[in-house]
Amino acid sequence: MQPDEAMTRAEPARRPIASRSSGWAIGLSRRLAASSVTPNQISVASVAVSALGAALMLLWAHPAAWILAALCVQLRLVCNLLDGMVAIEGGRKSAVGALYNEFPDRVADTLFLVAAGYAAGQPALGWAAALAAALTAYVRVFGGSVGLPQDFSGVMAKQRRMAALTAALVAQSVEWAFADTRWSLGIALGLILAGSLVTCVTRTLRIAKGLAS
């Protein structure tokens, strides 16, 4: 059994992430755990990074802005990885850690997706994608509330949403260099919306199956 798999079984509400076992993540998390930085501060930092990425999308229509926003998306995921590692592997869990584990994620998703909607000229699509993303988390947490393991699977779970958005931002930087259009962002938001709704359905079906058995 891999260390990450064993830790996930011990923490059933923890998202399985392959990069948690990578050398750079282990080394960085150990250094952070030995410092005065807390897991909750890292969680808050993910919101700050997301706000920066959202501002870049909204305020600077330039290929460089899309690339920098894509980097912010990935930095947000790094923060999400490290806060859990510092808390669990680093032994720095706090009484309110569960709040910081969930609430900043919802804020970060909303900032990125709503900003992408406005940047694409389709604000309603951005809000709809953000709502659907929040619903995937609601269904997951609901499964845990009725005694089942939290289900992190789905065609548009968080890592896949952010991968789709990252790819769209990079594609948008190329698109913008040739034409004043925002197809890349709009298409990605449509896929995120549809995939998130499918994820809600598949997770709900798994919950129903788990409760029935």
From TrEMBL:
GO terms for molecular function: phosphotransferase activity, for other substituted phosphate groups. InterPro entries: CDP-OH_PTrfase_TM_dom. It comes from the Bacteria. Keywords: Membrane, Transmembrane, Transmembrane helix. GO terms for biological process: phospholipid biosynthetic process. GO terms for cellular component: membrane. The chain crosses the membrane at residues 42-60, 124-141, 162-179, 185-205. Gene3D superfamilies: 1.20.120.1760. The keyword ATP-binding does not apply. This is CDP-diacylglycerol--glycerol-3-phosphate 3-phosphatidyltransferase. It comes from Methylopila jiangsuensis.
